[in-house]
Structure to design on (281 residues):
């Protein structure tokens, strides 16, 4: 299967020209920012893709009760909010936070739902559920599980590059986008999509639970290009030119809610060649 890995932020880049040079010349040298650590690797599966997500973050910030509550709230996801909304619509009268939250599938989801609901109040909690348009980022901010993002966040996407630019089927390619963070962002996400002569376009989103600090940095993923014909939508890679596009956002990408921002999209390309078969002698 294809493997995408959020691997690291890149070293500081002082200008667009230096960013382009650094990404093209040293993209493989992925470094963890000073004072950061890697949390546990999370493995999920979506659209027949196995995703290994490793996000470099500040250990003290991640360990704080506020950060833990926010992360757990975001993990409710659109499906969790949809379950709660359906129960409210069908039940008519909700007995309380415990009765509402008990309809979530996982114990951890029920616990964070109960905490947020109890702090915010059942009536206000239901009211927020009814007008957040299944936007889990905005919902968690509104019920005070996550801090509201800054209204002056500003990020420029500088350059996107692939290393190597020419990759053989079965090998890894690292894809990255350099960022100029003018004003730090809050809770958000970034998406990457890969299109070209492949039977099923590849795309995935990654949460930026601590936002992105002011300065110059980068976001990167690693893609292992392998066919996967096991699912309902086979992924078969053919030789040719591929376009990958990064989208970086505060809040949910595409959301119309206050303080949600799409900082922009930026694309790059790489070329895929067929592996040369080995000839037995």
């Amino acid at each position: 299967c294809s493997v995408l890995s959020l691997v690291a932020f890149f070293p500081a880049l002082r200008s667009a020209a230096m960013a382009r040079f650094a990404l093209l010349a040293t993209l493989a040298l992925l470094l963890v920012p000073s004072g950061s650590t890697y949390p546990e690797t999370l493995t999920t599966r979506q659209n027949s893709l196995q995703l290994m997500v490793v996000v470099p973050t500040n250990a003290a910030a991640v360990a704080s009760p506020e950060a833990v509550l926010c992360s757990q709230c975001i993990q409710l996801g659109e499906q969790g909010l949809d379950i709660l909304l359906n129960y409210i619509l069908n039940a008519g009268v909700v007995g309380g936070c415990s009765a509402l939250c008990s309809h979530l599938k996982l114990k951890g989801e029920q616990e964070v739902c109960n905490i947020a609901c109890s702090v915010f109040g059942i009536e206000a909690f239901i009211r927020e559920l009814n007008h957040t348009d299944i936007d889990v980022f905005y919902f968690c901010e509104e019920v005070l599980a996550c801090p509201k993002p800054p209204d002056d966040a500003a990020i420029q996407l500088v350059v996107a590059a692939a290393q190597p630019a020419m990759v053989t089927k079965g090998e890894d390619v690292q894809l990255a986008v350099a960022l100029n963070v003018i004003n730090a962002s809050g809770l958000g996400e970034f998406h990457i999509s890969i299109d070209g002569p492949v039977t099923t376009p590849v795309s995935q989103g990654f949460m930026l639970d601590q936002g992105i600090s002011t300065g110059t940095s980068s976001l990167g993923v690693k893609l292992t290009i392998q066919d996967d014909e096991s699912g309902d939508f086979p992924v078969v890679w053919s030789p040719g030119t591929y376009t990958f596009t990064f989208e970086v956002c505060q809040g949910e990408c595409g959301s119309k809610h206050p303080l949600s921002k799409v900082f922009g999209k930026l694309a790059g390309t790489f070329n895929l060649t067929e592996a040369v078969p080995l000839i037995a002698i």
Observations:
- Residues 186 and 211 are 4 Å apart (CA to CA).
- The mean pLDDT is 76.
- Helices lie at 16-26, 59-63, 65-74, 77-91, 97-101, 107-120, 122-131, 136-142.
- The first helix runs from residue 16 to 26.
